[in-house]
């Protein structure tokens, strides 16, 4: 049995359950939605990631003896609430966008239909997973778009929490990265892993010749030799001298990468190592990758910027009560009135409006009714959970395919890296029809 | 038994072990150090956090059957290396700054003395933990400094990975936050938890009166009522009508907080609720907290900005081989030559130089020798691990006390929020003496 995820929760969710049990409204049918009020400044689209991880965590959202003992000991909730939590199983339905889907302001990414109490306790877990993973995937997608056919390796584990690192590797893979340095991500999520050696390996040895010769003997001629510990030109010459033209790759981790890529490529070619690849790895982000598009680089290794969302470490998703049953028995849309944090009341349905050419034109969000497909459109709502049971695949590979499809449908301007407006306008059905 | 932490590691660390086993240098005595080349732009000091978590993770750094099976199946390393990993136990010594200590460029925060192979495999785990936790603590310390005697509540779980959230709550606590919304942080790290209700709770009910009355009945008069769901003035009036002057607090989560704090304080006082406190929680960071210093606010709730390091989500710490035994048997300082990422070779020792007034003056870093205490100084190096055994407390409360002491020693300019240089100059002993 997996560890419980039930305490990855904010204190106030449980006190709300307590108060709602007392007021008799804990069982009111409700709809909670997760969406972005806006995209991070200048971004043209967002990428939803983490849905699969959230659904797996939902299965483990159980208040067992240890969790209840903690809550009791610290008097966080009363006995009646503890009894309710002890029996907690999510029994509602969850709809949402498929993991890997692109999104825009207002897109209903996760729609939880349940009683108030069953839904409110999932707020923190859903947002933690989706905000983190979507922040990483949204940045990663810009990087893979800029990289084109050249593969990207995620290698940012050391720049983020050790648990985030595993999830970040998964989210980057969803957004098109080809591999990760993180071994746990390989084990847990089936993502290909990659890596050969750091500067410390070279420094350990008495000289670079000793280090390279041993690495080639141990890891094979296809390995990647790190050539910037001392002098790049001397190291490239030594690498080809020792490995011959079968050398897999050289890696450059410092300096002016554009200039060095040209120099090293020319040197490798002159030495006959025409198929030896060049890997670059120094503080890359989507802009640095774009600046290297015309340079003879074969592989990008990306660290800090991808795992920290390239300037936007949280996607800004919120989880809001948008509808609940009223006294009449009918569902009623609800929203708070605060001027600077408005929400649109009512349950939402997303549809990607496409032209006859298959290119996406708008994000249609129906309020309390499903928008009509005009023949070229793509339905975005997927049933993820039915009466408490997860009914979709939760793996990263499926989400990765979905992302490639969804991104390919966007107008070309969506992939520009410069600051811009969301690539598709969000149109609420009440405006549209 | 805890889950193994051994795969929270970059692929290349294990291939380096493989190559070093072949070259015969895997057992060379080495020193690896973790330090910051620079502070994040404009920051005046950094706060080390995560040391306790790293030491706990070190105890669980074991390659068990599952980990070895994964490595074998994916041919990540050869059989000889798998055998070595199966027997892996860290048997070296680790020195470092105490958790909670403030630091400056070059401060030797973690100094690992071991064979190459034993030390190199800890690189990613050490950096993941320390980079994340120190980023959060460094931001959190600026917030608690700006907040003065007013307590700060960490409530950013939803804006970061669900595992980071627990560690972020701990790091914020180390840097002086008083409590967290995160229940798992309460359970795992003993941090006080806090929370009452969100807007969804009010919206669930037919009206605010119903919601407030039930909350007061269920959670007591000392609870915090959220007053900005509809109209703040009406809600405050209703709150005091229902609870009387015993009302614990009101919370404001939107709008102009300075203006509203003054208005709500005046209204509460006019209603006789002079001891009812005001909690504010809308997108606060250290600058917003500073701007509220003159406003009648009692408690700050901080979310996104603290868990994401307030603009600097990774502390930028690196883990470098700085010394290793040479052929002669003597230890030799090593460093790579790259121009833009230089390191200082040799084992480091940190000392906080203080004036006779007890105020810190400089960060003294001795290279290969311990700097002399001139009588007023404070020794910074603590032995954390002795022959593989953790020999210091790893809890958050101890680190929190240490941080309060270390910060109090800094010159006043260190606590200014404006962009500045590091508050203490780092002086390498070779320059100093």
Mean pLDDT of chain A: 96
- Number of helices, counting only DSSP H or I runs of 4 residues or more of chain A: 16
Low-confidence stretches of chain A: none
Here the CATH topology of the largest domain in chain A equals nicotinate phosphoribosyltransferase
Basic shape of chain A: globular
Q: How much helix is in the residues of chain A?
A: 25-40%
Main sheet overview of chain A: 7 strands, antiparallel
| Overall radius of gyration of chain A | 25 Å
**Major protein interface:** A-B, 108 and 108 residues
Number of strands of chain A: 19
Query: How many structural domains can be distinguished in the coordinates of chain A?
Result: 2
What would you call the quaternary organization? Answer: homodimer
The CATH H-level superfamily of the largest domain in chain A is nicotinate phosphoribosyltransferase
Fraction of residues in β-strands of chain A: 15-25%
What is the CATH domain class of the largest domain in chain A?
Alpha Beta
**Major sheet: arrangement of strands of chain A:** 13-12-1-5-3-17-18
Distance between the termini of chain A: 50 Å
> Could you say which structural class the secondary elements and strand pairing of chain A correspond to?
alpha/beta
Q: Which architecture name of the largest domain in chain A does CATH use?
A: Alpha-Beta Barrel
GO molecular function (chains A, B): glycosyltransferase activity; nicotinate phosphoribosyltransferase activity
GO cellular component, one term (chains A, B): cytosol
Keywords (chains A, B): Glycosyltransferase, Ligase, Phosphoprotein, Pyridine nucleotide biosynthesis, Transferase
Pfam families (chains A, B): NAPRTase_N
